[in-house]
Amino acid sequence: NAGVTQTPKFQVLKTGQSMTLQCAQDMNHNSMYWYQQDPGMGLRLIYYSASEGTTDKGEVPNGYNVSRLNKREFSLRLESAAPSQTSVYFCASSQERDFYEQYFGPGTRLTVT
Amino acid sequence: KQEVTQIPAALSVPEGENLVLNCSFTDSAIYNLQWFRQDPGKGLTSLLLIQSSQREQTSGRLNASLDKSSGRSTLYIAASQPGDSATYLCALEYGNKLVFGAGTILRVKS
Question: For the segment A15-44, what is each residue's pLDDT rounded down to a tens digit?
């Protein structure tokens, strides 16, 4: 039982490049989330998926797109990376949207130069 | 808009000391509150979840309380150990999303 896994763990991009961050959970959770964490700040919600086939914007969605591929997988895509998107990205999952404990992946550290 | 503040921002204590971490929020219309631990370079680990109908939760040396009317939650750590060194974050469910505080960086010296 791996919980929530994220790939890659580290990534360096040049401005304008695109990439997809992958997230998978093996807990049969319905809801999945993508968060952004900047130094000295709390996590901010980018997008979430309350259930398979649905996605909704969070607090800071601009510059990102998501896909809930199936119940297990939820990906985050940066279409044209900008230095302001340098951050740590966390994926999380929970049994329901309204509200059970959220379980977090180890994070992806992204640097955009 | 909900704002979450954690005080202090950083704390350094000798091993064995009891300590309190504070989390305050501006709008009491929250559902649940969760305390997390984050180790350097790692993800978040859930410590305690206080549901809206509860006032406190305990797990081992940890006790968390919630007072929605005053907009406060506290995390009490008894007999601190060097292994408790980490960043502690509180997060509350508000308006169908989790709102996080910036965290308290705790260092327990041996």
Answer: 999 999 999 999 999 999 999 999 878 899
For residues A48 and A61, what is the distance between their CA atoms, to the nearest angstrom? 10
Which DSSP string do the residues of B34-102 spell out, in sequence order?
Answer: EEEEE-TTS-EEEEEEE-TT-SEEEETTEEEEEETTTTEEEEEE-S--GGG-EEEEEEEEETTEEEE--
Question: Would you state the structure tokens that stand for residue A5, as one six-digit string?
Answer: 């896994």
With 0-12 CB in 10 A as exposed, 13-18 as middle and 19+ as buried, what is A24?
A: buried
Q: Do A99 and B43 touch (CB under 8 A)?
A: no
B49 in contact with A at a CB cutoff of 8 Å? yes
Tell me what pLDDT residue A1 has: 65
A-chain residues within 8 Å CB-CB of B32? 99
Name every chain B residue with its beta carbon within 8 A of the beta carbon of A4: 43
CB contact under 8 A, A99 and B93: yes
pLDDT at position B89 over 90? yes
The Cα–Cα gap between B103 and B89 comes to 4
Whether the CB-CB separation of A62 and A56 falls below 8 Å is answered with no
**CB–CB contact A44 B100 (8 Å):** yes
